[in-house]
Automatic annotation (TrEMBL):
It holds the Pfam family DUF445. PANTHER family: INNER MEMBRANE PROTEIN, INNER MEMBRANE PROTEIN-RELATED. This is Membrane protein. The keyword Membrane applies. Keywords: Membrane, Transmembrane, Transmembrane helix. It comes from the Bacteria. One of its GO terms (cellular component) is plasma membrane. The chain crosses the membrane at residues 24-42, 406-427. Coiled coil: none annotated. InterPro entries: DUF445.
Length: 428
């Protein structure tokens, strides 16, 4: 096939060669059967000649009948417009509708869809994609690049209300506890928990130093109230100094990295993380605390302010390929991939969710697929439609011609022998 100076290969060239080869075989067999029939007229008269002649006649008739039937599907035999021939070109709209209904009702079915989804394991495919930085990084960059348009289409008031409504639900379930546990594990692994502990101890010491006089006065008053004015006057100041000195001394012992209190804090934190991951009651309790905290009016106001700041930061950062948005999205993809890899229940839930969405869309998709196939076939040129279908089934149909010739030959011989046996010699 030529287009300008370029040669475009025929995609159906192999099919055309196969059809031509099978058609020549069937036509050759019919021609051979006709030659055999003519040859019997030059053979000596007798029972076997008559038997061979009857068989050849029936073979020729059977071959011609099947040639007519196969040809009539795609064109008028010998170009003669015989009624009810050239069926495919004349009925392509009806065939297209029938083919569309068949595919949508018997191929694209709920049973087949479930089977394909089960074989694909979409959650595993998503997990491998998310866990591969080479694949997920471009996706993160594309998502970040579309962030400004997405934010521009999102009304601030509606987005803030959605944020206030969704966050408590997200963190109140088991997923919230797992998220807290994951954050705490990363916190402990990096040693940041000791920094927080040191900060708390330091702030406590600063607070004690700043309020030392008021604390000494409170202790003196307490001693005076419990032991009387004389005891308070004699020992109040001394006891207050010793109490504050003992507290500062104990806080000083905690500061070294190898202190017992620090080790006990780390052990307690590890135990709490494990309980968050394994104890449903503990996870539920953390979820309730987080939900109540996020539902507090002051936190809601803070979340609204967070949304405004977050939107401004995202708009400024999203256009940068090396920005924090891309890095954050890549990290989220990696974490989601790790979660799917480690949690069979999450993979099963994702597969079921995808399956549910596809099944809900199935009726509409079936109707659209049926209409699409009917439209494509109906818009084909009549000759093109016949050519496309014949190329794909014509080779098999040539075996119908071959079998018709052979079956006619055998049936004709058998019928001649039977009638000769019953009625004597049959007139040729």
């Amino acid at each position: 096939m030529m287009q300008g100076s370029l040669t475009i290969p025929d995609p159906d060239a192999d099919l055309r060669r196969s059809l031509r080869r099978h058609r020549l075989l069937a036509t050759g067999m019919l021609g051979g059967m006709a030659g055999l029939l003519v040859g019997t007229y030059f053979m000596p008269a007798g029972y076997w000649t008559d038997l061979l002649q009857a068989s050849a006649k029936a073979g020729v008739v059977g071959g011609l009948a099947d040639w007519f039937a196969v040809t009539a599907l795609f064109r008028h035999p010998l170009g003669i417009p015989i009624p009810h021939t050239a069926i495919v070109p004349n009925q392509k709209e009806r065939l297209g509708r029938a083919l569309g209904r068949f595919v949508s009702s018997h191929v694209f079915t709920e049973t087949e869809l479930r089977r394909v989804i089960a074989q694909l394991d979409l959650a595993r495919i998503v997990q491998k994609f998310l866990a591969d930085p080479a694949a997920s990084r471009p996706a993160a960059e594309a998502l970040a690049a579309s962030m400004p348009k997405l934010l521009a289409s999102l009304e601030d008031g509606r987005a803030r209300k959605l944020l206030v409504r969704l966050l408590p639900r997200i963190v109140s379930g088991p997923a919230g506890a797992r998220l807290v546990a994951r954050v705490l594990r990363a916190f402990v692994a990096s040693g940041r928990h000791q920094e927080v502990f040191s900060l708390a101890i330091g702030q406590l010491k600063v607070l004690l130093t700043a309020r030392e006089e008021s604390l000494r006065t409170v202790i003196e008053q307490r001693i005076r109230a419990e032991g009387g004015a004389v005891i308070g006057w004699l020992a109040g100041a001394t006891v207050a100094k010793r109490v504050l000195a003992a507290i500062n001394n104990e806080l000083g012992k905690v500061e070294p990295e190898d202190s017992d209190l620090r080790a006990a804090f780390a052990e307690w934190l590890g135990h709490e993380i494990e309980r968050l991951e394994t104890d449903p009651e503990r996870a539920a309790a953390i979820g309730r605390v987080l939900r109540e905290a996020l539902a507090h009016p002051s936190v809601a106001v803070w979340l609204l302010d967070v949304w405004g700041r977050l939107r401004a930061a995202l708009l400024a950062d999203a256009a940068r390929p090396d920005g924090r948005t891309v890095t954050l999205l890549s990290g989220l993809f990696a974490n989601a991939g790790a979660l799917l890899a480690d949690d069979p229940a999450a993979r099963e839930k994702l597969n079921r969710s995808v399956e549910g969405v596809l099944l809900r869309l199935l009726p509409s998709a079936q109707a659209q697929l049926s209409d699409f196939i009917a439209g494509v076939v109906g818009n084909w040129d009549a000759k093109s439609a016949a050519d496309k279908i014949e190329l794909r089934v014509g080779a098999d149909l040539q075996y119908v011609r071959i079998n018709g010739t052979l079956v006619g030959f055998l049936a004709g011989g058998a019928l001649f022998a039977l009638l000769s046996a019953v009625f004597g010699r049959v007139a040729g």
